[in-house]
């Protein structure tokens, strides 16, 4: 699964350490081995700052998204893992690269996300959705046109989500420009 997601070896190692700890702490009864191993990989990727969305993880696993999320929360809680919320900026380089965008577009996307954080509009929003919208907005701002459909495909998120976050990002940007 780690290979299919393009995750580095250190994430795979961390995932196996988390899995072995779950095994040692007797967390497996009542849960599938595949569910716990998938949740361990998801946790390891987030710890390493190379997060993948639950949809991406579920796409390479034989476990349903809901079970992965439930098992992930259980493992994190029981093993007292320190995991920061996913930062939308950590998704930007991969999305920009997959869409063939320039460094300038990537920088602009990061700038939009910084403004969103300052304005507090990121709270409670999907980091994947925010990153996808920032990449889409940035591509337009630097005249490297990509479609919402292309961004939706790369980020595995709906065009509606991209549109909604896109408008919020631009409103935040406008309110900063006015002040």
Automatic annotation (TrEMBL):
Give the molecular function GO annotations: TBP-class protein binding
**GO CC, any one term:** transcription preinitiation complex
Q: Which domain of life is it from?
A: Archaea
SUPFAM superfamilies to which the protein is assigned, alphabetical: Cyclin-like
| Gene3D superfamilies in alphabetical order | Cyclin-like
Domain named Cyclin-like: residues: 1-77, 90-171
Please cite one Gene Ontology biological process associated with this protein: transcription preinitiation complex assembly
Which InterPro entries does this entry report, sorted A to Z?
Cyclin-like_dom, Cyclin-like_sf, TFIIB, TFIIB_CS, TFIIB_cyclin
**Record's CDD domains?**
CYCLIN_TFIIB_archaea_like_rpt2
The free-text function statement in the UniProt record for this protein reads: Stabilizes TBP binding to an archaeal box-A promoter. Also responsible for recruiting RNA polymerase II to the pre-initiation complex (DNA-TBP-TFIIB).
| Similarity comment | Belongs to the TFIIB family.
Write the protein's name. Answer: Transcription initiation factor IIB
Species the sequence originates in: Halorubrum distributum JCM 9100
Which lineage?
Archaea, Methanobacteriati, Methanobacteriota, Stenosarchaea group, Halobacteria
């Amino acid at each position: 699964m780690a290979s299919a997601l393009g995750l580095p070896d250190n994430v795979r190692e961390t995932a196996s350490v988390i899995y072995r700890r779950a095994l040692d702490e007797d967390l497996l009864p009542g849960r599938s081995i595949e569910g716990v191993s998938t949740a361990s990989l998801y946790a390891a990727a987030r710890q390493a700052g190379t997060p993948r969305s639950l949809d991406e993880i579920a796409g390479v696993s034989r476990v349903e998204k809901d079970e992965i999320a439930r098992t992930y929360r259980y493992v994190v809680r029981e093993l007292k893992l320190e995991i920061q919320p996913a930062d939308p900026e950590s998704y930007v380089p991969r999305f920009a690269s997959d869409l063939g965008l320039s460094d300038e577009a990537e920088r602009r996307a990061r700038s939009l996300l910084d403004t969103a954080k300052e304005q507090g509009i990121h709270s409670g929003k999907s980091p994947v959705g925010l990153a996808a919208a920032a990449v889409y907005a940035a591509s337009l701002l630097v005249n490297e046109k990509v479609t919402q459909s292309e961004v939706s495909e790369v980020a595995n998120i709906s065009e509606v989500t991209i549109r909604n976050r896109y408008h919020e990002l631009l409103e935040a940007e406008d309110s900063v420009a006015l002040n």
